[in-house]
Structure formats: C-alpha cells, structure tokens
Specification:
By secondary structure, the chain is α/β, with parallel strands linked by helices. The protein contains 23 helices and 21 strands. Helix 1 (11-20) links the parallel strand 1 and strand 2 (28-30).
C-alpha cells in the first residue's frame, strides 16, 4: 500500500492539507524537525508545505537533504505560496518535484497525489531518435559482433549505472561507439549524452559549457563523456577529479547526480598521460579495446559484415572477397583499425558498384582507399620462414639473409646480465610470485562466470543469452580445470633429478608438435639448435613440461603472422661456474609485446619453478622495446 507523508511546520495547515488530499489513516503527518519520520515507512509521495514562518526555508531544506537518500524513488509535491514559488524552485533545484501554489484546490491536490502514485512512464522517443538508435545498435553489433565480454555485461548492468566507465584504445577501435552504445542501452538512462572534447588548451569553463544552459528536468541524469581525457593539462585533470568525486561546483547541474564516461588512448609522452588519481576514479569499469593488428581473426568477418550491410542498404548483392583480397586485408598493419578497414571496404564498393553485379567478386586490384589503390603495408619485409622438418633441428639462414644471428645474441654482452653469480646456488621461486600468477590466471574466468551467473535470473528467457552462458562458462570452467590439472601434474614429479636429457632435441620435438597451430596462425619459427651439445641434466617429464610452458607462452604472446626465435647453446662455465645448456626464446619482433601479461603468466611461473628446482636459472628480460627475451640455463654434463 502506498505511503503518503505530509510535512508542514504549522499543525493546522498540516491537517488542512490532509483533508484536501483525502489522506488515509496511514498518512504520516509532522513538521520538518519531527523525529517521527526517522522511524516511519518511507513515503511514496511527499507533500512538503513551504511557509516562511520564521523567515527561512532552512528546516525544509535540511529535511529534504537528510531524508533524500531514504526517499529515493519517492515523488515530491512542493506547496509554496505564490510569492515564494520562484525562490523555492531555485533552492530545491535538484529535487524532482511538482510545484503547486498554496492555497490549492482539493481536486487539484488529489489529482497531483494520484498522478504521483502512478508508475513513471519512459518518455516517448521521436521517429528521429528511433532511427538513430537503430543505426547505433546496428553499427555496434557489426563492429563488435560476438564480443559478449564480461566487461560489456558489467557495463550494461543497471545496478552499476552510476560507476564511471573508461574505454581505452587506439583511434579507430570504436571507443566512442562503446560510450554511445552503453548510454543508449542502460535501462535507467535518462538525460542527454554530453561530449566534453578534451584538449591541451581546455579550461574548466570550456568543458562545463558543453553541458549547456537552460532548463533541464531534475530527474534527468546526463552522461558526461570526457573524450580523449588524457590530453587535459594536469591541473585540469585534478579539477575534473573533484567533479567526479564531489559533483559540479556551479551551473545548471551543480549538486545533481551525473554519470561519467571517458575515452583515452594508449598514451605516449607526446599524447599526454592520465594522472594516477584520475585513472583510479575512472577505473571502476575499465575497458580496453585491442588494435585490429592484435585481433587478425576478426578482420575478414568484419569486412564481410561491412560489405553485406552496405550492399543490403542499396539493394545490391553482397560480394565475395577473392583470396588475394583476403590476403591483402589480413596482411595490412591497420594503423587506423576498424574505421580504416571499414573505409577500405566501402570505398572499394563505391568504386566497383557499377560492375559489381557482373561477377560478384571483389579482388585485391579492386580495393581502394580515398580514391587510390589500396596497398597493404606491414613494415619491414620478414625473412622467409624456416621449414620445420624431422626433429626441427634446423639451422638459420646464412649471415646476410636478413635474419638476426641468435648465436651472437647468446654470446654477446646482451646476455651477460642474465648470468648467475659464480658459485651462487639457484634460488627457489618465491611463493608470492607463484600465487600472484595463479590468481591472475583464474581471476578473469571467475569474473566472467560470476557476471553471467548474476545476470542469468534476469535474462533466463533470452535463448541467445542462455547459449552464450553455456559456451562462455563452459570454456572458463575448462580453463580453470586446466590450471588445476597442470599444478597437480607438477606436484607428482621429482624435480631435482640429475640424469642426462637430450634437451635440444626435446625443444625441436615440442615445436614440431605445434605444427598445426603454427600453420594456422602463419607463425615463423627461426631455430638454431646446438646439435653438438644437446644434453642437460634433469628429469625429463618436468623438464619437458617447463619447455612446453615456455614455448606455448611465447606463441601466445605474439599476434598471428609473427616470427619467433628459439636457440640452444652450450656454455662451459655458464651456471654457478659449471657447464650449462642455455635455451633462449625471443618473441615479438615487430612491435611491443605485452610484458605485463608475461610477468603474470602462470605458465612461466611454473616453468621457472621447475627450472630452479632442478638447479637451473630462468630469466625474463623485458628491457627490449621490440620483444621479450626468455632465457633458461640448465645444468649440463
């Protein structure tokens, strides 16, 4: 049953308002300072009489300020006298209230109370708004089809609608599209999306001016989008931080609740950077969009969806991409990411729209960008791939063929810091490092499982959601089981065995066993195996496990089409003054490799544990700007 509160400092006027509103026996009456409201059931409708009996509205203002959180969702009716109406509207500016001039007629007051008790209906969307929403949803679905990530589901949870969202990525990855889509899809979204363009010369006034002037309904909650927030000068970032934490200081929206969203790029010194405190304030929901070059499997599906959409809109048959066109698209570096790829597809279709119906095929020669032939570029030409044959003990191409000399890399000064001090016994891997890697490995799947589980009761009737639930949760449970199985295997082995093991041949065999994945991902293995000194001292099952972890992690750190270097070399005095077999792997030769991922890798932590327990040394060298160097030194006979 609905609860009505009637508040007025004058007892006789309280009683009169109760009669005019035809209040029931359950109605709660009192003054703004009456403690009865502290224990009363929250009101669904609150009639607040405003009369300056003591020359001030202070008691009423303090009552609203104190009770507003408890009365969240209540409908307010303010009853000032005619002379005080404008002042009341100014003082109670953030209150979603209907203002009636006192004295008020009984039918009018009853109608207002009845209207306040009815559920709020969402405002009707105009035809133009409906068209824009359809276009937004189509575009988002086309750009991010199949990416029902935990981050997206979390950002769409209406219970988290007041938590800031920050979308990070390179230009062209769809950062602004994410912000617009999230604003449109939030179930409790009311109010405009306000884009605040951030520049190095921005000022507080220029940002606040984006919110505009004029009347705004108090119930509207604008979404303030800080576009390229990292470009703001440091002092303004500090100011914006206070807006997020405390609210806007002045203006139409001062004191009102706001939703905050931000977009930021992968920053360099020339782009500016995000202050740590502001990053923390925006980081409640942090979404990172990978560049297209790191997600090459999505290039052709996105191109095909774009072509299909463009042709359907013009009642043309959708073309097929020829094999050479597919290769050209897949091999391009895509510095402009999705937006550049979309432009290539649409520009090419425009150029071929007249003759497209003849063969229905789009070739590499048909590809256009800005009216010019499209030429894919991937930076410096790679060395030819070394074929994997037999035991994979294959020498590198000769000097001068454009391939890095791994033997020199092993022998030169770059490797010297990796040498253990003479006569220093190997140190065990700290338990904290292993625990950190284990937590990092299982946190992501548990997060997605928890998110989907929380949303299941709300979206159980959605067949697509149930299918995604089964697929994603099944995959993540398998991932956790794999972690448990690897640790269980490790616990059953003797790690300190000291028998000769042909480690060099073992490395080649592990690479050969991954031939199918190597071909599917177009990886290039460049191997230099020391066949004259292949032996290490250890226990073969755990040593194989450690080398598999090393190789699999290296393959996982690089995008498709990358090159990986793997070598072995014998050192007469390389480990604690004794002989050692060094196995070196370098990955990421055409741009930065995700060092943070390697530092938190469970596979590398387990490999390090095995190597050190067997008397060896393991070093992860992330100092290079173009890759990661992983070095294993094993005792040798």
């Amino acid at each position: 049953m609905s609860v009505l509160w009637i508040i007025h400092r004058d007892p006789s006027l309280r009683a009169a308002l109760a009669r005019l509103a035809r209040a029931s026996e359950d109605t709660i009456l009192g003054s703004p300072l009456d403690p009865i409201f502290d224990a009363a059931p929250p009101g669904d409708v609150v009639l607040l009489g405003l009369a300056e009996l003591e020359g001030s509205f202070e008691p009423e203002l303090e009552f609203v300020h104190r009770a507003r959180q408890r009365l969240k969702g209540a409908r307010w009716v303010l009853l000032p006298e005619a002379a005080d109406a404008a002042r009341a509207q100014t003082l109670f500016d953030t209150l979603d209230a209907e203002i009636l001039i006192h004295p008020v007629d009984s039918p009018w007051l009853q109608a207002s109370v009845k209207s306040a008790l009815e559920p709020r209906k969402p405002p009707l969307a105009s035809l133009s708004q409906r068209v824009m929403r359809d276009r937004l949803r189509e575009r988002f679905g086309r750009w991010f089809q199949g990416r029902e990530t935990p981050e997206l589901l979390r950002a769409l949870d209406p219970r988290l609608g007041d938590i800031p969202v920050c979308v990070q990525g390179e230009p062209g990855t769809g950062r602004g599209l994410w912000v617009r889509y999230l604003h449109d899809q939030l179930a409790n979204a009311r109010g405009p999306l306000v884009r605040m363009v951030c520049r190095s010369d921005s000022t507080p006034d220029s940002l606040l001016a984006s919110l505009g002037a004029g009347p705004h309904p108090a119930q509207d909650t604008p979404t303030c989008w800080l576009d390229e927030v990292q470009a703001l000068p440091r002092e303004l970032q500090d100011e914006v931080l206070s807006w997020i934490e405390l609210g806007l200081p002045t203006g139409t929206h001062a004191g009102r609740p706001l939703r905050w969203a931000a977009t930021t790029r992968e920053t360099t010194d020339s782009d500016g950077s995000l202050e740590p405190a502001l990053r923390l304030a925006l980081g409640g929901q942090w979404i990172r969009l990978a560049p297209l070059r790191d997600d090459r499997e999505s290039i052709l599906p996105f191109a095909q969806r774009t072509a299909q959409h463009w042709c359907e809109a013009r009642q043309l048959p959708s073309p097929e991409f020829s094999s050479d066109a597919c290769a050209a698209l897949e091999n391009h570096a895509w510095p402009g990411n999705h937006r550049q790829l979309e432009a290539v597809v649409t520009h090419s279709l425009v150029a071929r729209s007249g003759g497209l119906l003849a063969d229905g095929l789009l070739t590499a020669a048909d590809l256009r960008l800005n009216g010019e032939p499209f030429v894919p570029t991937r930076g410096p030409r790679r060395a030819e791939a070394v074929p994997i044959v037999g035991e994979s003990v294959v020498p590198l191409p000769r000097e001068g063929e454009g391939v890095i000399d791994l033997a020199a890399l092993i022998e030169d000064g770059a490797a010297e810091p990796l040498e253990p001090a003479a006569n220093a016994p190997p140190e065990p891997l700290p338990l904290g490092a292993l625990a950190d890697a284990l937590a990092h490995e299982i946190r992501n799947p548990l997060s997605s499982i928890r998110t989907f589980t929380q949303l299941l009761p709300q979206r159980f009737e959605d067949a697509d959601f149930r299918a995604r639930f089964e697929d994603l949760v099944g995959r993540d449970v398998d991932r956790i089981l794999d972690v448990v199985e690897r640790i269980d295997r490790l616990a059953r082995w003797e790690l300190d065995g000291r028998t000769p093991v042909d480690a060099a041949t073992l490395v080649g065999r592990i690479v050969e066993e991954r031939r199918e994945e190597t071909q599917r991902r177009r990886l290039e293995w460049l191997l230099e195996i020391d066949g004259d000194h292949p032996l290490a001292l250890g226990n073969e099952p755990p040593l194989r496990f450690a080398l598999e972890c090393l190789i699999d992690e290296g393959m996982g750190l690089v995008p498709d089409g990358s090159r990986l270097f793997l070598a072995s070399h014998y050192h007469p005095t390389g480990l604690s003054g004794g002989p050692s077999l060094r196995i070196l792997m370098r990955c990421g030769d055409e741009g930065p490799t995700p060092v943070a991922t390697a530092n938190h890798s469970l596979s590398l932590a387990l490999a390090q544990w095995v190597v050190r327990a067997g008397g060896g040394a393991f070093t992860l060298d992330a100092a290079s700007q173009t890759g990661i160097l992983m070095v294993v030194d094993l005792p040798a006979p």
